[in-house]
């Protein structure tokens, strides 16, 4: 899978609804077909590959993650969870295991939100958080519509989004943070996921010559942006421990090196497992940013383009993961996920939880993202046992 949509430094650039995403989907479908699974696709392009259970009326246990990557993504973010879910099924096939509940291996469309915001878009529609129409009209930086791109790659499915009901949902994922490696733990028993706000700022300055415009005549949206970034840093540091804030994406217009920007658009990403802290950070940022802009005569508008509250995962499933790790003799610890995942939206409509493995230096959303085979195997082993137990083994 890592050969599809290669990056420039050993990772991947397999962004959602690109030709490489389509190629990755076809390869994943081929592997699912070879494992004897039946593929269903919904109107958001999410892929559901089913292994039948012995009880046709029993709701399935869903196991999955995402195959789309960041533009400079790693080989494991999302992919580990989808392919480990497939490996669970292939191992069940090898062992001739039958379960009461069907197993559905899942690949969610556009988890990353890199090309089309917000993140976790398809699982958000599945959970009833976003409408299909909202999703279809999301635009990428080139102005392409999500719905048009999904159609272009030929992955608009016929299933109504969210019509499927789940007995349980499991997602196996690299931690994308440094805790498990630092604590020398093989397994993260994920009890919660921190909440998030994505605030998109549009600052309006005045395009002018960077050479001949005197400093006191500038309406400098770029300067306003930099002061807002400093303020976001101070607000997040003021809420330690357990709060983060920063900016990953900025657009200058006209983005010419000798023109002061007329428009600056950027997204502030703030997160915390504590809802009060999360909302306090948002309030502080939304109160201070306009004041910063006023002093510079810069226009300021703020739009929420992504949000989910902190998530508590299902106690029974969390226990299934923890007891599997104990039975199998893996070191483990409770963990709050720093990154968002499709499991966060699945948890709105079904019992859900996650299994995590360490990653080297806690690095992710970087092409150098790396894990060890031992870590990958331990997590997949725990996932296998927790899933088979929850699906109620019959044979
Ligand atoms: O932003 C996130 O937490 C996820 O990687 N989409
Ligand atoms: Mn991910
Ligand atoms: Mn990611």
From TrEMBL:
Cofactor binding comment, as recorded: Binds 2 Zn(2+) ions per subunit.
Signal sequence bounds: none
SUPFAM superfamilies: Bacterial exopeptidase dimerisation domain, Zn-dependent exopeptidases
InterPro entries cross-referenced by the UniProt entry: Amidase_Cbmase, Bact_exopeptidase_dim_dom, Peptidase_M20, Peptidase_M20_dimer
Catalytic activity, EC: 3.5.1.6
Transmembrane region(s): none
Region (Disordered): 1-20
Record protein name field: N-carbamoyl-beta-alanine amidohydrolase protein
Species: Rhizobium etli (strain ATCC 51251 / DSM 11541 / JCM 21823 / NBRC 15573 / CFN 42)
